[in-house]
Amino acid sequence: MSHNVRISLLGREYTLYSSESEEQVHEVVRFVEQKLAEISGGKSVDTRDLTVLTLLNLAGQYIQLKAELRSRDLGQEERLSQIVTRLEQELESGSTIGSPSLS
Fold first, then answer.
1. In Å, how far are 62, 85, 88, 96, 98 from 101, measured between CA atoms?
2. Strand (E) positions, the chain?
3. What angle do CA 14, 40, 8 make, to 5 degrees?
4. How far apart are CA 92 and CA 103, in angstroms?
5. pTM to 2 decimals?
6. Coil, strand, or helix at residue 6?
7. Cα 82 to Cα 87: distance, rounded to the nearest angstrom
8. What pLDDT, in 10s, does the model give residues 64-101?
9. C-alpha triplet 1, 5, 62: angle, nearest 5°
């Protein structure tokens, strides 16, 4: 169920309408605050510049994670394909998988 959640970010108050729990929304806010602090490095930085740099940083991390996930998924698909091919070969040859051959 969607509801309003009040947050504070960069010295401004916001009311967000979210289907996530209030705790989840606040966890996201803490994450964003942490990223903002990392980018600013404790220095006084223009809020707009800080926001843009943080967004670019997060977008870069997102794209990298998405590529890693895609690569991992392709590796799993390849492994599954190898298993299916081996099972098909074993079935075609009439041998029992996992049993020693009687030759």
1. 50, 20, 17, 8, 9
2. 3-9, 12-18
3. 15
4. 18
5. 0.65
6. strand
7. 9
8. 999 999 888 888 888 888 898 888 888 888 765 565 55
9. 85
